[in-house]
Amino acid sequence: MRPILATISLAALRHNLAVVKKYAPSAKIMAVVKANGYGHGLIDVAQGLNTADGFAVLGLNEAIDLREAGFEQTVLLLEGVFNAEELSVAASFAIDVVVHSVPQIEMLERAHLAKPVCVHLKINTGMNRLGFTPSDFLKALSRLDACKNVATITLMTHFATADEDVGIASALQTFQNTTHGVHYPVSLANSAAILRYPESHTNIANNSWVRPGIMLYGASPIGGLPAAQFELKPVMQLTSEIISVQILQAGESVGYGNRFTATKTTRVGIVACGYADGYPRHAGQDAFNVESVAKNQYDTPIVVANKMTRTLGRVSMDMLFCDLTEIPEANIGAPVELWGNHVSVDVVAETAGTVGYELLCAVSKRVPFKVIY
Ligand SMILES: *Cc1c(COP(=O)(O)O)cnc(C)c1O
Fold first, then answer.
1. What is the average per-residue pLDDT within 145-171?
2. Which end of the chain has less Cβ packing within 10 Å, N or C?
């Protein structure tokens, strides 16, 4: 079998959930497990996080999968339902729904549901993606409040800049002004806000929520701040092996486009992992301009036989290349860590001009997964 493997640690998930609890002790935890548990496997992740108070997903199918796997806590559809039939099904499975638009309120008003649903009324505080504007909020709230198909209401917003220097002050102020004088549980903080802005999850009404995603998987929500700084542990180890070794003489190159040319005798390891597995093609020497490539800057770290080294050249569909010159003991079969405990997925992402979120979600179907408990 091709040696690539994604190993998922449920112990790391439990540890990271405890970190969320430490930062946000007074809130209920809605573990965000959308996108197949950020690429880690929905049901396995939910198993690891089974002491969370709720799970948030996008699709009704994912929500039903959680119910059918036996999870009884809150399950929330982050974009709500897309039609009346979905609303009936959601109600029959006791799935909570976000309400962010007038058509979704109309569906609730017209529906005949098995039982009323819990709604999370979304307010737009500056992201300008989903949600009611501050001026439309009270009207929406009073319609939901009067609706017989609504069991409970939670007031929700999503911060556009919790991970940026400007922070959440303005959005939080907008939220507080908008909801002044009405008393409901709230749901505000994503990972970045949980870690950086206690004011988004302290002194909030009973039964209020935080919505951590990326931090549960042990990656950082904030560029430049390593996850380890928050004592988060990576949940996924993406590993493979060396499947060939080549010796380049000075002037010889490796891979498509000859993007790496040796300046001295160089031992190159060929790793069974490429962009079709989800490793970013734009990592390292393909990401930046020709001058930085010429200087061999922005190499991506990679661990071979427990030693840190760097990738070389252009990532191909099924393989990538690394420098074994200083690791003479590494031969065919030597173990490789693409990301995990020694190489943060955030660092690989950074050299590819993206974020850990994208890489974790993009590990492809052909990569086998193994769960450790
Ligand atoms: C994805 C998402 C989250 C989680 O965000 P992280 O940055 O991964 O913590 C929280 N709330 C909403 C509405 C989301 O879409």
1. 97
2. N
Are 51 and 61 spatial neighbours (Cβ–Cβ below 8 Å)? no
DSSP assigned state of 300? P
pLDDT in tens, 85-135: 999 999 999 999 999 999 999 999 999 999 999 999 999 999 999 999 999
Mutate to test the pocket of ligand 1, among 76, 79, 158, 359 (most ligand atoms within 8 A of CB): 158
| Claim: this prediction has a pTM higher than 0.90 | yes
Q: Give CA–CA dist 191/213, Å, rounded.
A: 6
Beta bridge partners of 216: none
Q: What is the mean predicted confidence (pLDDT) over 268-297?
A: 74
Ligand 1 centroid to Cα of residue 226, in Å, is 18
Q: Residue with the nearest Cα to atom 15 of ligand 1? A: 78
**Distance between CA 155 and CA 196 in Å, rounded?**
21
Please state the atom number of ligand 1 nearest to the C-alpha of residue 357: 8
Cα separation, 89 vs 111, whole angstroms: 11
